[in-house]
Sequence to fold (138 residues):
Amino acid sequence: MLSRHRLPLPYRAGLAAAWLLPPVLLLLALLYGGLTPSGFDLRLGLLFGLMCAPALYIWREGVDVLPGGLVARVFWPRYLPYERLDAWYFDGRADRRVLTIWSLSGTKALECRAGHLTNFPALLAALKANIRCRRWPA
Fold:
C-alpha cells in the first residue's frame, strides 16, 4: 500500500462515537433494568452488531492508493484499477474542492471532497502519475 487516505482522526472518531452511542445507551438501560447474562439472547446480540456496523464502516471509509489502482471505500468498497480509469479533475474552487475520477465508460468512478481525506496532495500525486488529468470538468 502506497498511501491511505481517510477522514481526519478527530472527525472519524466523533462520527464513530455518535454511531456507537445508541447501542451503548440501550445496553446501559437494559443492564440498569435488570438484564442478566443469562437473559442475553442471541437476537439481542445481533441487534447490537447491526447497530455497531455503521461505526465500523465510517472508521474504514476512504481511498487507498495501491501500485495497480485505487481501493475506494466510499459508499461501497470497490477496487478501481488504473487501466479502467480514464481521467480525473480536481475542482479547486473554495466553495467546491471536489475530486472527480471518471472510468473508461464515461461514468463517475469516484467523487469526494478534498477536506474529507487526509494527505490529499499525495493522492493527487498518485493520480497525476497514473491517469491523465482533465483540465475542464465534463
Summary: The longest helix spans residues 9-32. The chain has a mean pLDDT of 86.
